[in-house]
Queue: 3 jobs
Job 1
Amino acid sequence: MAYKEKEIEKLYYSIGEVAEMFNVAPSLIRFWESEFDLIQPKKNRKGNRQFTKEDIDNVKLIYHLVKEKGFTLQGAKEMLKNDSMAMKDKMEMIESLKSIRKFLVSVRDRLQS
């Protein structure tokens, strides 16, 4: 069995890296930060935003509501205010199911070759 090195996960991500993850402009991330209390990145001495994994998960949640589900900003705020934990659980479940699907598709593809 070949040794596979575990990918090192960063503690902090720049706004550019976060924007790239979601294929949006950094200005949209800054705008969402001003609109949603959920996104609160730390700032270093230079004033650059430093996003944690939790911040990125919150951006993912807002992205899902606004970009994928078509909620207005106000609608997304209401949804998060009413039950943000349920939304986070739902997002985790969706991510888990996507991961399982990706694995199953890769198994199917290998079996067909």
Job 2
Amino acid sequence: MSKDKKDFLEVEINPQVEGGVYINQALIVHNMKEFIFDLGLALPEGKIRVQSRLITNPIDAKAIMLALRDNIAKYEEKFGEIKLPVQPAPHKGSSQVH
């Protein structure tokens, strides 16, 4: 079966967000109904300035994780392994990604 236009979603990016924001830290917390991703920028004074907050349900959070895992695998296949630096301790009650 060949793929045609009906197999893909059309993506429209809001002009206010199309430039994106740079982040190098992610703090993730959850409760029974939702996951909260605080995406931020590490500042020299040892603080993190949250640039964007994403809130989603557990099903979509897992779908995002699987899509990210797939993209990282493809990236590493093409460019080599991504090596992580030693991570500082996470903030209380959250998981710090980086």
Job 3
Amino acid sequence: MRVDGPQSALAVLVPEAEWLVAPFREKYDPSAALGMPAHITLLYPFLPPDAIDAAVLDRLTTCIGQLAPFDFSLTTIGSFDPGVLYLAPTPDEPFRQLTLAVWQGWPQAPPYGGRFAEIIPHLTIADVGDARLRDRIATEFAQVASAELPIRARATTATLLEKRSARWRVHTVIPLGARPV
């Protein structure tokens, strides 16, 4: 999903995977060319950047801070039609919980604009819009990644990113577990 104009997104950044996915993302994921690091999306699109003020950040901190940090692994390669290739996290339920916690606070900002009925946490490797090209990329990626998976990581923060002009940048990093339940 591509949105024109200023925009924001909430994600868990996954620097542990960057070394493996960056060569593919740089070629095949338009968001990487715009500065978006390897990540698992929690909520996109979120609010227009001009609507993000101290009150929004306080509410985000409350929503995200209720959930404890968690370990996960990127274990398997998956795909969406027509042309998205991704790594799936295990477990994936904590990502869903984070998405739902934020979405409850901002029901006007459903995940992916409400285009999909199910929340499927994933780290995009390629977004090419063509199933045959995606499948060729999947074969190439699998050859590289087979000996490298799983990638183990720990989610300790959620990151609010914004794109006001041509590139994504970090707006705010929000710790998980920062607010007692």
